[in-house]
Amino acid sequence: MNKNNYIYNYSNFKETNEGMKTWLSTFLILANLGLVPLHIKSANSNIKKEFIQEQPADKIDAAKFLDYLNNKNIPIEEAWENFIKDDVTIKSEFKDVSKYLNKEN
Q: Distance of alpha carbon 54 from its chain centroid, rounded?
């Protein structure tokens, strides 16, 4: 397949509307962490968007936090405090997202 068929860089979508950026970036984070089923990954964009909209907020926040942790090298408690300061869209408490952090599936 052609490299241009894949999304490699969020900055390529600067002209995309904010609603599209929000669900697309969330989908990419979940997919990168292995939290998107194969049949959803291969589906059309409407199904992918519906999949994201059906996910609980704490699961999405947990995925965002895991992505954040993957890019930092600090203790988890300090990382959570920094993370919620950096991303004002996070509404969940650490106790709510922590149930997803050590989950195998």
A: 13
Burial classification of residue 83, based on how many CB atoms lie within 10 Å of its CB (0-12 exposed, 13-18 middle, 19 or more buried) = buried
CA pair distance 45, 50, nearest whole angstrom: 9
Q: Where are the domains of the chain?
A: 3-54, 57-101
Torsion, Cα 28 30 35 41, to 10 degrees, reads -20
Q: How many residues does the chain have?
A: 105
pLDDT in tens, 27-50: 888 888 888 999 999 899 899 999
pLDDT band at 76 (very low <50, low <70, confident <90, very high): confident
Calpha distance 68→79 (Å, rounded): 8
Dmax (CA) of the chain: 42
